[in-house]
Amino acid sequence: MKKVLLLLLLTTLLFAQNESFSKSKKELRKIYADHQTTVYCDCKYNYKDKKNMIDRNSCGYMPRNEYTKKGKVNQRARRIEWEHIIPAENFGRQFSCWREGNPKCVSSKGKQYKGRKCCEKVSKEFRIMQADMHNLFPAIGELNGDRSNFRFDFEEAVYSQYGQCKFEVDFKAKRVKVKEELRGVIARDYLYFNKQYGMKLSKQELQKYNAWNKQYPPSEWEEERNKRIERKQGNRNTFIY
After folding, report:
1. Among the listed residues 149, 220, 158, 208, the one whose alpha carbon sits nearest the alpha carbon of residue 183
2. Cβ within 8 Å of residue 198, ≥6 positions away
3. How many Å apart are CA 114 and CA 88, to the nearest integer?
4. Is residue 241 part of a domain?
5. Which of 9, 30, 81, 97 is 20 to 30 A from residue 162's alpha carbon, by CA?
């Protein structure tokens, strides 16, 4: 019994040290070194190609905006970004530093600020949640930007704004629809955050995610990814195995 408690204590201490979002992204590049595929579109990518990391031919991705409003190349459509499947705002707004700010969150001009910038400064728990690798996935930058902090819709995407990539953003309703195969991945991520950090989910969300978890079991890669993150971060998503 003492050995079990000691192991749990060591695991908790190791996990608690992971506060760096930047460090997590570096580690994830290693974790995905032999599986460089984006989460939403299944596009192959290559970090070494600085001009365009995305292999569009591998997935049929077409940018919604190839160019910016100023006529420049949309660089976010050509690079990989690490997407929080659960946006920082979704768990961040449960912190007072996100909603109200903090006496320590004052700019050089004396103006108090709040939100992500404040929580990164004053909340260790927020930093740990933000850096949690179980919630970070490689995504095309344009999709990461378009998704913003929108919630996932419970319906499947029925048409595409991004070529053959089955990813639909309703900017007016602030909702995002994805392909059916991702439902299990999304469900297990939300259930993990609910269990690990006590992140609030509505009754409807809990019912839907529990149903998806059973209906769409983990793939071999999802299980392998979980093992690799556990080795690096010190904990696993118990909804995967």
Report:
1. 208
2. none
3. 13
4. no
5. 30
Q: What is the identity of the amino acid at 217?
A: P
Distances in Å between the Cα of 143 and the Cα atoms of 57, 116, 130, 146, 178 are: 17, 20, 19, 5, 11
Look up the domain containing 55 and give its range. 17-231
1, pLDDT greater than 70: no
Q: Quick one: pLDDT band at residue 14, thresholds 50, 70, 90?
A: very low
**Distance in angstroms (rounded) separating the CA atoms of residues 112 and 128:** 23
Average pLDDT over residues 140-144: 98
pTM of the full structure: 0.91
Per-residue pLDDT reduced to its tens digit, 86-98: 999 999 999 999 9
Residue 238 belongs to a domain: no
Flag whether 239 is in a domain.
no
CB 184 within 8 A of CB 215: yes
User: Which tens digit of pLDDT belongs to each residue from 225-240?
Assistant: 999 999 999 999 999 9
Asked if the structure places residue 38 within a domain, the reply is yes
In this predicted structure, what is the pLDDT of residue 180? 94
* Cβ 78 vs Cβ 51: under 8 Å: yes
pLDDT of residue 68: 95
